[in-house]
Amino acid sequence: MKPKQNESEYEQYIIPRDVLTLKKLTPNAKLLYAVILTICDKHGYCTAKNKHFGSLLGISDTSTSLLVKKLEDKKLIKLKYLNRKFMRIIFTFDADSDSINIVLSKVKDALSKVKDIYNIYRQEYYSDILADDYVEDIDIKTKIWTGKDGVKRGKD
How far apart, in whole angstroms, are the C-alpha atoms of residue 6 and residue 9? Predict the structure, then answer.
């Protein structure tokens, strides 16, 4: 009897023949492409970080970054960045611009909602602190406030 396998324990990665036969692509780059392709086939895009790829393939984040760049240079993947490189989205090179724009729009909307929720929380948190009698001054960026007794408090 076969042991039960769930999706996270057993996933197949397929390297297309045209990528497998590329002479100027390292074996690790081909494996990375197979992983990216599998994720893109499942979701339409890939947001995995270099750390995830590196741990999966047993290589460093730096090596992974170089391999991603190589795949982009070989026109196997397209990279799109949101919020000044805060988030990278990977697409297979055959993804059309309409599909890419739809995904980017949905991700931007989701990030905007998260940012709004965070700002509401932050505003409520600091207004509670300011409402207390012991607060003299507060620095929102550093999250440090000075009490009326002159002692600085907050997160360092």
Answer: 5
Q: What is the spatial distance between Cα 85 and Cα 63, in angstroms, rounded to a whole number?
A: 19
User: What pTM, to 2 d.p., does this model score?
Assistant: 0.63
Query: What is the domain count for the chain?
Result: 1
pLDDT at 1: 42
Rounded Cα distance, 77 and 71, in Å: 6
Could you give the residue ranges of the DSSP H alpha helices within 6-150? 17-20, 27-43, 50-57, 61-73, 97-131
CATH of the domain at 19: 1.10.10.10
Please report, to the nearest 10 degrees, the dihedral formed by the alpha carbons of residues 44, 33, 93, 112 taken in order: 40
Q: At what angle do helices 50-57 and 27-43 cross, to 10 degrees?
A: 120
CB 80 within 8 A of CB 88: yes
Rounded Cα–Cα distance for residues 120 and 127 (Å): 11
